[in-house]
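Hi Y.,

Following your request, here is the sequence exactly as I used it, all 215 residues.
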Amino acid sequence: MRYLTEICLLGFICSGFVLAREISYPDWPKAVADDGMNPLYAAVEQHSRFTSEVSAEIIRSISDTDDNLKKSKGFFVLGEVPCLASVSFLLKNIDFVKHDDRMHSEIPLIRTYPAQEALKKIGPKALPALLDVVAKETDSAKYPFYFNVIYDIFQVGDIQKSTAIFQIVMSDCTAEVKDKERADKIREAIRSFINSKLDVLKRSREAAETIVPEN
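Below is the corresponding structure, written out as tokens. Let me know if you'd prefer a different format.
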């Protein structure tokens, strides 16, 4: 019975996908016939094209405004459009800071970085581009921004396990860096980032130990 329910649900999702494509592209059936393409492949192609068009429009809107909050909202929406153009644009703006007149702080730890949050929403799909940018980045001040996103993508709730996964992923990244000086800088930044996470864990454990249980 469970399998029958899953099959029905899958059929419903597929039907919804096809309907959405037909609404977005009224000439979709004709396009399939004209191109002689497999309908499923054509649907994927249309979806990819539609995603790229949406991404380009959002990027254009962000670039055309000087309003900080409008840009921030644009980055947030871009996180829902996972394609190469979205990821590339978000990486270029990874240190963009949202300014909110109602709640603005100069303290880095409580700033809001909408491009980072958008990349986290895109998740593992953004990882290849993230690692590539880290390997090529010459501004070491930007490393923590990239590391925060990569760490959160693989976060499993436990700081020790998350930092271990992060370290494995980043060791593969540094292995690809041919420039020894840059590779050393990245490794040093990775060690500093991991130590900061483990320091948070240590302090939280110490705080827990100092709590006196109520009688």
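The two ends are 52 Å apart (CA to CA).

Thanks again,
Q.
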